[in-house]
Amino acid sequence: MKIKKKLPWSLLLFFSSCCIISAQELFVRDGYCSYSAETESNGDIYTFSSDEEANKAVERILKYTGLKKNFTIKAANVNNAEASIMGNTRYILYNQDFMLRVKKVTHTDWAAISIMAHEIGHHLQGHTLLNGGSRPNIELEADKYSGFILQKMGATLEQAKAAILSIASEQGSDTHPGKTARVAAITNGWIEARDLTSPPDTDKTPDTDPVHQPADTSSRLPSTPTPAVFYVSRCVFANDPTAYYVTNTNIIITINQFGQVAVVGQKLPPTFPNFAWMYQTAYTTYGVAPNGFIFGSYPNGTLMQVGYVTNP
Ligand SMILES: [Zn+2]
Fold first, then answer.
1. Which residue from 16, 161, 182, 284 lies 20 to 30 Å from 169 (Cα-Cα)?
2. pLDDT band with cut points at 50, 70 and 90 for residue 295
3. For the chain, where are the E strands, in sequence order?
4. What's the gap in Å between 115 CA and the centre of ligand 1?
5. Residue 138 is inside which H or E element, if any?
């Protein structure tokens, strides 16, 4: 015999009010990389809905990457900001008070954007899937990525470095390098992005010392008309609807639905014998085989096909 039980109204009200009050959720990390070295363990971590400013910053960054968002953003009682993973879901957690302090000290919105770009860099490079969390070498990769992306977004080098200059300690730790190394990584990424987008200098010989290039942007404009840039092949990645194009100048770009072009990387000569060329971005390098197959590698070195190129 089936007995249909009814919950008393008082109990229903209790459950529904619980759901409204308990907007915070206990978060158990399976792996994470933070922005700067931890001080004390802060016990249980709870996440809260993220604020509009953080969401907008992330959306802006992603526009310039040409990549899909593969994480959820949450405010949390973490020490600063971190890229985390729980189960199969990726997160960016940030401490709202920390972000407000950074903004107050640096007097620029670019500081918070660079922190978010650093965390996005961790996810895009698969750092949270590695055992052990933050380590100096992967922190520098994420810093370089933030410098690269901020240049593409229009930040000056000073704006790209603002957060790290105000937060990083001079001394390195087991998890994070010292300030000078982190500033150098951001600068390196920023310059790499600037050079990718600079107009080609037709007078430049390949072995010209870059130190002697004029610093003034106007004087870098070529005196003769810029040769036409056109696309020679298209790159398609599994589970990524974005199309990437390789130009005759060996730059890899993406074009969004509004026709805006973003530089995502460059085509480089092969550094491994079985590849025709390397597809390099600020955060990863793929190998392209002579048949057009694009290969990525797992941290253990195993190769896996991730896409293909037309007209390899
Ligand atoms: Zn980090």
1. 284
2. confident
3. 25-27, 31-34, 45-49, 72-76, 81-86, 89-94, 231-237, 240-247, 251-255, 261-268, 277-281, 285-288, 293-297, 303-309
4. 9
5. helix 136-153
Contacts of residue 155, defined as CB under 8 A and 6 or more positions apart, other chains included, come to 110, 113, 114, 190
How many A from CA of 291 to the centre of ligand 1?
Answer: 37
**16 CA from centroid of ligand 1 (Å):** 38
What is the SS3 assignment for 253? strand
CA 180 → CA 107, 149, 183, 187, 226, distances in Å?
21, 20, 5, 10, 38
Spatial strand order in the sheet of 45-49: 25-27, 45-49, 72-76, 89-94, 81-86, 31-34
Ligand 1 centroid to Cα of residue 27, in Å, is: 19
d(CA 284, CA 124): 9
CA–centroid distance, 134 to ligand 1, in Å, is 6
Once rounded to an integer, what is the mean pLDDT over residues 60-87? 88
Q: Which SS3 state, helix, strand or coil, does residue 241 take?
A: strand
Integer Cα distance of 231 and 222 in angstroms: 21
- Which residue in 25, 10, 289, 262 sits closest to 148, CA to CA? 262
Residue 90 C-alpha to ligand 1 middle, in angstroms? 14
Q: Which residue has the tokens 């249909």?
A: 4
Cα 131 to ligand 1 centre (Å): 14
Q: How far is the CA of 4 from the centre of ligand 1 (A)?
A: 54
Q: How far is the CA of 289 from the centre of ligand 1 (A)?
A: 32
Amino acid in position 231: Y
Is the separation of the CB atoms in 209 and 68 below 8 Å? no
Q: Is the pTM of this model over 0.70?
A: no
Cβ-in-10-Å burial (0-12, 13-18, 19+) of 160 comes to: buried
- Amino acid identity for residue 70 in this structure: N
Interval between CA 119 and ligand 1 midpoint (Å) = 6
